[in-house]
Amino acid sequence: MKMKIAVEGCAHGELEIIYECIETMQRREGINIDLLICCGDFQSVRNYEDLGTMAVPKKYQNMCSFYKYYSGEKRAPILTLFIGGNHEASNYLQELPYGGWVAPNIYYLGRAGVVKFGDIRIGGMSGIYKPQDYLQGHWECLPYNQSSLRTVYHVRSLEVFRLCQLRDKIHVMLSHDWPRGITDYGDTDTLLRWKAFFREDIESNRLGSVPAMQVLRTLKPDYWFAAHLHCQYAALVKHEDTNTETKFLALDKCLPRRKHLQIVDIPSEYDGELCLRHDVEWLAILKNTNHLLTVKNMNCYMPGPGGHGRFDFSPTDEEKENVVRLLGSLVIKEESFVRTAPIHDPNARKVVPTVPILNPQTVALCEKLGIDDPVQVVMARSGRAMKQPHAETTREEIRPTSSEENVSQVVSQSPSQTPMKSSRLSLLLPAPVTPSNEKSLQATSLETTTVPDTPESTMFYECKTPMFTGPTTVPDTPERTMFYECKTPMSAGPKKTFKRRNMSIYNTPDVDESVSTKSSSSLDDTPQSSKLPYRGDDTNDT
Fold first, then answer.
1. Which of 119, 270, 310, 395 is least surrounded, with the fewest CB atoms within 10 Å of its CB?
2. How do 106-108 and 100-103 pair as beta strands?
């Protein structure tokens, strides 16, 4: 038996198009897709406030289509699992540091996480790697300034340390970045013919994420999927110590005629009900390492051999059994989803949020496991109060379409109907050390743009079978390539113009968006027009 999983590269909020592509493929091929996984830049934007927490220029701040699935206007037709990238509504994802439902049938893995789908274990690490922030604690909190707006999605050592404690088999692993050095294991010559500006970073071994490769080498998953660099690339990493291998695939962004969606057959012996379940080993690791959580914006080191105290936090059988007792049921029930913020109102005032919201999903998990929510710790130490979830008074204006009538019960349910337990916050951590120049981000109006009606955009995605046919690469032959046409207008928004952007985003600090110099490298296919100093930010990779 094989489980069919659709893998999407950078979603960039275009859920309607991605779901239509999947439905078209299922209809034409007569198959059923069991799960959709997205490798970052998901853009779970609920409303204008969320839009203001995305680290992108205002001209790229587009509502796209996630808000329809959040409000209940539409329902995701397939169970969707995703990690965060560098273009996200960071305020919303910070509500769910350990994962949770962001909309009915759409689940976020958290800053790092592992879940089970049938008998397949799927892990993920959100964000991108920046060495200057890697060892810091989780000090970011609303309101963001121009620095924390970006550092909030940078990978931290705590999550990587936790992932490296896993001992049971991981089948699928997700990251937004490519693991550093992955280009040693694939057809890099072909990659450079399409992306010549990658050469300098590849030759100097600066392309990709150091911790992602560390996790790959430690966990040795069967599959590793990534995105971020906006191109398709396959590789096969052999692990000589265990005689196993990891099949790596990076995918493009969701745009017309780009290779952004791949169907993968993964062996499975599971014959029960397919649903998401908590992973006991992962939750036990979260519980064992809760004392390592810090909210300082300074370097904090993880324990290792030669120090005092425990440094191996791989859980024992007794610790796993304790987690099962604490949770009761391991099923991640969709009914736990709560709309914590107002749904999108086109006439609402366009402001930037300043106070984080308590998410009942995080509160419940933290209470059961006895672990801390980083944002709650920051807020408690600063003497500030978090918002309670938004209480909606009516949902009558939302009506599902005929194909979505089965979601009517979810639509009519108000978050206020879900009981909100008081949070048991164990303040075992030192007070956060905030930057001396930290200033509250002032509420500012977002630019509005009138978009004329546009003709239908034709979207193609590519499906190759088999995905890995040789020791290191995927032959790009016509007979193995199938394109599926999806005629759906792209989300209304400002017309996107693409410009040169630097690939060396892994070793240079973020800078203010006002810095206007460009670079000699890029994440798109625009011909190089000049060589200028590196800008240093990662905000224009749209």
1. 310
2. antiparallel
Q: How far is CA 428 from the centre of its chain?
A: 29
pTM as predicted? 0.78
Cis peptide before 143 (omega within 30 of 0): yes
Amino acid found at 59? K
Residue 97 lies in a domain: yes
DSSP state of 503: S
CA angle 50, 336, 141 (to 5 degrees): 35
User: What distance in Å separates the CA atoms of residue 281 and residue 451, rounded to the nearest whole number?
Assistant: 49
**Is 457 part of a structural domain of the chain?**
no
Q: Please give the C-alpha separations between residue 309 and each of 212, 304, 306, 313, in angstroms, as whole numbers.
A: 27, 9, 9, 11
User: Which residues make Cβ contacts (< 8 Å) with residue 454, sequence separation at least 6?
Assistant: 489, 490, 492
Angle at the Cα of 463 from the Cα atoms of 457 and 467, rounded to 5 degrees: 150
Q: Is 67 helix (H, G, I), strand (E, B) or coil?
A: helix
Instruction: Provide the residue range defining the domain that includes 40.
Output: 2-417
CB 505: neighbour CB atoms within 10 A?
Answer: 27
Reduced to 3 states, what is the DSSP secondary structure of residue 180? coil
Assigned token pair, 106: 């759409």
Task: List Cβ neighbours of 175 (8 Å cut-off, separation of 6 or more).
Answer: 39, 40, 83, 124, 125, 209, 212, 215, 224, 225, 226
Domain count, the chain: 1
Tens of each residue's pLDDT in the chain, 542 residues:
789 999 999 999 999 999 999 999 999 999 999 999 999 999 999 999 999 999 998 888 899 999 999 999 999 999 999 999 999 999 999 999 999 999 999 999 999 999 999 999 999 999 999 999 999 999 999 999 999 999 999 999 999 999 999 999 999 999 999 999 999 999 999 999 999 999 999 999 999 999 999 999 999 999 999 999 999 999 999 998 888 999 999 999 998 888 999 999 999 998 888 999 999 999 999 999 999 999 999 999 999 998 788 999 999 999 999 999 999 999 999 999 999 999 999 999 889 999 999 999 999 999 999 999 999 999 999 999 999 998 753 333 333 333 333 333 322 333 333 333 333 333 333 333 333 333 333 332 223 222 233 333 333 334 333 344 333 333 333 333 333 334 444 444 444 333 333 333 333 333 333 222 233 233 333 223 222 222 233 444 43
SS3 assignment, position 11: coil
In a domain, 521, yes or no: no
The CA distance from 181 to 149, in Å, is 28
Query: What proportions of the chain, in percent to the nearest 5, are helix, strand and coil?
Result: 25, 15, 60
Classify residue 140: in a domain, yes or no: yes
Q: Which residues pair with 107 in a beta bridge?
A: 81, 101
CATH of the domain at 33: 3.60.21.10
Answer whether 38's CB lies under 8 Å from 32's CB. no
Question: What gap in Å lies between CA 102 and CA 341, rounded to an integer?
Answer: 11
